[in-house]
Amino acid sequence: MEDKTDMISERKDIPILKNVLKRLNSNDLTHNVKGSFKKLAKSLSTPSHVSIKEEKKLSFTIKFFYSLGHIYNDLTVSIWFSYTLLIFKFQFSDSMAGALLLIGQMADAIASPYVGFQSDRMPDIKLFRVLGRRKFWHLLGVILNTLTVPLIYNEKPCFPGNCINASDWTRFAFYAVLIIIFQGGWAATQVSHVSLIVDLTDNANERIELNAYRQAATIFANICLYTVTLFVIGFDSNETLRQEDLNVFTKVSYIVCAIGIVFSILFQVFVKEPVTEPNERKPRGISTASAFSIETQRALHRGSVIGLMSFTSHNQNSSDDNDSIADIPVAIVIDVEKQLTKKSSEKKFWQWLISYNFWKVTIMYTMARMFFNLGQVYTPLYLQDTLQMPKNTVAIIPFATYIAGLICSFSAKPFSTKFGTRWVLIIGALFGITACIWIFIGSNSDAYKLWQIYCVSAFLGIGGTALIISTLALTSDLIGTNKTTGAFVFASMSFFDKAINGVVIELLSHFTPVSEIGQSLDYYKLVLALITGLSSVVALLGLLSIYKTTLGRKIHKSDKTNTNITLH
C-alpha cells in the first residue's frame, strides 16, 4: 500500500485529477453533463454495445461517387449560365432577359438558406432514415431539375403549349415560374451535396480532396455539355447563332437530363451518408465518445475510467480511492478535464452572422463565383457579338476553358498540401487577373482569334477553378467541427453569391447598348475584362485580410488518428 501511495504522490497530475473530481461533484456542471458523462462511460464499458475499430480514410470509391452527385447540377447550371441569356435575347429585350436570370438567382438565393436549415435537421421520417438528411434533399432537387429543364430550353415558347403569339409579359411569367422551380431544385441538390463533405470526414486534407474531386466533376460536366453542344451544332459552321438555331439547345437539354439522372442514381446508390439520429440532441461539453482522445476512448471501453466515476461517490482519502487514482493514466485525466471544462464548440446560426471571418470568407466565395459565373455568361456573347466568331465557338472556347480547369483541379490537392490552400487562391487570382488584362488589350486581329483566345480561355479556367476550390476549402476550415450548422454556412454564402451575381447580371443587361445586327459590340469585352477582373482582385484582398488567421476550431491530433469508437 505504501508503494501505491508513493506512486500517487509522485504523479504531477493529482491537482488536475482532484479538480476533475471536485467539478464532477460540484454544481458548476449541469446535471446533463454529469449524467451524460457517467452514462457514456458506463455504456462504453459494456462490450456488447461498443467495438473499437480502425477508422479508414475515405476510399477512392466514396470520393469518386461523391463527386458524381453534383454532375446533374453542374450540367444544368452550365447551360443556365452559358446559354440562357444568349437564348432569351432572341425572345425578349436585353433587360427582360437579364431579369429572368435575376429571378432565377434570387429564387436560388432564397431557397439555399432554407434548404441548408432544413438539411441540418433530421426529422423522424422513414424516408429521411433510409436516404439520410442530405441525400433526401439531393434527390428532391434532381426530380425538380428533371421536370423543368426540358421546358425552359424548348425551342417552342411555353412548351408543351404554344404562346408564340402571346405578349412578352405572358411568356415572361411562364418562364419565371419554371425558373423559380428549377432554381429551388438546384439549391436543394447543391446545398445538400456540399454540406455532406463535413459529415463524411473531419480531416482537413480529405475535405480539400473532396472539394477537388467535386470541382473536377464540375469541370467534367462542363466539358460534357460543350462536347454535346459542339456535336449538335456541327464542326463546320461558319455563321453566328440565329433564332433558327434554338432547336440546338432543346436537344442539348434532353441529353443533359438523361446524363444527369444516371450520375445522380450512382451517387444515391454508392455513397452512404453517416447515420444521424432523428432530432438528435447532444449534451453540451461531451457530445459523443469521439470527443475524447483515443487513449480515453480505450480506457472507457476497458472500464478504467469508471474508477474515476465511482471515486466521486466515496471519501477521497481512502486507500481504495488512492488505488483508483494511481490506476488512471495522466493523459486520460487531462483529456477528461478538457472535455469537462470546455463549452460546446458548436456555433448557433446567429453566431455565424456576427463573425467577421464568416463575412470575409463569404465575400471571397462570392467574388470567386462571380469570376466563374460572369465568365460563363458573357464568353458566348463576347465570342458572338464582339469577336463575331463562328457559332460553334460557343462550345469550343468554353471547352478549352474547362480542360484547363480540369488540369488545375487535379493539381490543387498536391499543391495545397505542400504550400497551403491560401496559396491556391493567390495563384488562381493571378491567373484570373492576367486573363482579364489580356482580354482588355486584345483586339479583333486574326492572331487573337486564331490562338490567343485559347490562351485567354485557359487562364480563365485555371483562375476560376483555383478560386472556387480554395474558397470552398476555406469555408470548410471556417466550419471546422460545427457540423450541426455546416449546411447553414454553405447556404448563407450561396445566398449572397446568387443574389449578388443576379443583381450584377441584371444591371449589366439593363445597360447593354443597342447595336445593329452584324455590328461588333465592345461592351462584352469590357464586362469580361473589368468586372471579372475586379472580382478576382477583391477575392485576393479578402485573403490578405485573413492570411494569418486560423479559421474554425482546430482538429486535435487525436482526431486525425485512424481509430475511433463505433456504437452499435
What's this, in brief?
With 568 residues, this protein is mainly alpha-helical.
Mind explaining what this structure looks like?
- The longest helix is centred in the last third of the chain and has 34 residues, at 446-479.
- 71% of the residues lie in helices and 2% in strands.
- It is built from 22 helices and 2 strands.
- The protein has helices at residues 2-10, 14-25, 31-44, 60-68, 71-88, 94-119, 126-131, 133-152, 168-200, 204-233, 247-270, 294-302, 306-311, 319-327, 330-341, 349-353, 356-386, 393-419, 421-441, 446-479, 486-510, 523-545; strands at 50-54, 563-567.
- It has 2 domains: 60-278 and 347-553, MFS general substrate transporter like domains (Growth Hormone, Chain: A), CATH 1.20.1250; 283-343, no CATH class.
- The two termini are 40 Å apart.
- Residues 1-9, 27-34, 36-54, 280-326, 340-344 and 554-568 have low confidence and may be disordered.
- By secondary structure, the protein is mostly helical.
